[in-house]
Design a protein that fits this description.
By secondary structure, the protein is of the alpha+beta class. Helices cover 31% and strands 26% of the residues. It has a single domain, classed as Phosphoribosylformylglycinamidine synthase subunit PurS (Mth169, Chain: A). The chain has helices spanning 16-27, 51-66; strands at 2-9, 39-45, 72-79. The radius of gyration is 17 Å and the shape is elongated.
Length: 89
């Protein structure tokens, strides 16, 4: 299974990098950009043989390491992988 994890700051948390990106895009001639949010994209290849266990493990990883749940939200997208492949690091 491939688990895609999207991590972003919660709405009430200030995002100085997002603000800087918005200003820079505006200065480059993209005034339609009103705000930007910077986050993380993480892709994991997991194989336990039990799809439900894999989902639980990814959620546990998010809570323990991948996201700081005090200031960040996360979304997990699970995809079935037809052919076995390992992500190259």
């Amino acid at each position: 299974m491939i688990a895609k994890v999207l991590v972003s700051l919660q709405d009430e948390v200030l995002d100085p990098a997002g603000r800087a990106l918005t200003e820079r895009l505006n200065n480059l001639g993209f005034p339609e950009v009103k705000s930007a949010k910077i986050g993380k994209y993480i892709e994991l290849y997991i194989e336990t043989g039990d799809r439900e266990k894999e989902k639980e493990r990814v959620e546990d990883m998010c809570h323990k390491l991948l996201a700081n749940t005090l200031v960040e939200d996360f979304e997990i997208i699970h995809e079935q992988e037809d052919k076995k492949k390992e992500l190259k690091v």
